[in-house]
Amino acid sequence: LTFGGGPLNNYVMHSIARMVELLRDNPGKKGFVTANGGFLTKHAFGVYSTEAPKGDYQHENLQAEVDACPTREWLVDHNGDVTIESYTVMFSGDEPAVGHFACLTANGKRTWANSSDPDILQDMQVTEYCGRAARIDGAGNLTL
User: Fold this and answer.
1) Per residue in 86-116, pLDDT tens?
2) CB 130 within 8 A of CB 84
3) Nearest to residue 86, comparing CAs of 101, 73, 107?
4) How do the residues of the chain divide into helix, strand and coil, expressed in percent and rounded to 5?
5) pLDDT tens digits, residue range 21-60?
6) May I ask the CATH class of domain 80-143?
7) Can you tell me the distance from the alpha carbon of 82 to that of 79, in angstroms, rounded to the nearest whole number?
8) Where are the chain's structural domains?
9) Which helix (H) or strand (E) holds 14?
10) Does residue 7 surpass a pLDDT of 80?
11) pTM, to two decimals
12) Which of 82, 98, 101, 102 supports an S-S bond with 86, CB 3.0-4.6 Å?
């Protein structure tokens, strides 16, 4: 690397360095650090400790098991009722700007929606939305 901390380069090194500091302050504890690839197509993790492992390093290729996991069909466009599966609020400065939702249709397909409704954005921060019924219009906007 010609420099550190840049996009697609080594953001997670900062997390690892911090974990080293925390573990040195807490001998015998374990630490867990996760990372993702620059295009969110890869995931990595490391388990750290101040104690040496009891055995040799182990490496397993689990891709076949991952590939065998069930998948869910998804819809780019959906107009109708959904159940909210997951959500997050994105901020612009100190203000909530948009809510992003992953949703399931009645037939189990996944789709996504957004909301810029200020009342919904405020409520999302204090109320659990997972499992909640909602509706998506043809333009991808979510309403309750």
Assistant:
1) 999 999 999 999 999 999 999 999 999 999 9
2) yes
3) 101
4) 20, 35, 45
5) 999 999 999 999 998 876 667 888 999 999 998 999 888 9
6) mainly beta
7) 9
8) 11-67, 80-143
9) helix 11-25
10) no
11) 0.67
12) 102
